[in-house]
Write a structure and sequence with these properties.
This protein has 103 residues and is of the alpha+beta class. It folds into two domains: 1-30, no CATH class; 33-101, Winged helix-like DNA-binding domain superfamily/Winged helix DNA-binding domain (Arc Repressor Mutant, subunit A), CATH 1.10.10. Helix content is 50%, strand content 13%. It is built from five helices and five strands. It has helices at residues 3-17, 20-27, 49-56, 65-72, 76-88; strands at 31-32, 38-39, 63-64, 93-96, 99-101. A three-stranded antiparallel sheet has the order 3-5-4. It has a two-stranded antiparallel sheet with strand order 1-2. Strand 4 and strand 5 form a beta hairpin. It is globular, with a radius of gyration of 17 Å. It starts with a helix and ends with a strand.
């Protein structure tokens, strides 16, 4: 048995023991939450409604922060604070100065 085969076997055992959310996260597939919302990362399940609304404005392609502020109608400071939290939780990534996207 070579190293790659041993690694694949160990990874398969870990994935069998993982929850469905962890498996979907590993595979990069979105799932549906109990309320019907699409969940890309299990950390999204812990968000409050206002945070979900901001996150829903962000797509996988780069999205302007100004567009998010305009779409939500919230003060810029509140949107920027939420984006910082999303970035720390790795729900989004900053593409450039004014653009963010889902990973």
């Amino acid at each position: 048995m070579n190293h790659a085969t041993a690694y694949d076997g160990a990874r398969a055992r870990v994935l069998r023991r993982s929850s469905a959310g962890q498996l979907l996260e590993e595979l990069g597939q979105p799932a549906k939450a109990a309320d019907g919302q699409t969940v890309h990362h299990r950390a999204e399940l812990l968000l409050i409604e206002a945070e979900r609304q901001v996150l829903a404005c962000i797509e996988q392609r780069p999205t302007s922060i100004d567009q998010i502020i305009a779409a939500r109608g919230m003060p810029a400071a509140q949107v920027l604070a939420r984006l910082s939290v999303f970035e720390m939780r790795r729900l989004i990534r900053r593409v450039s100065g004014n653009l963010v996207a889902r990973p």
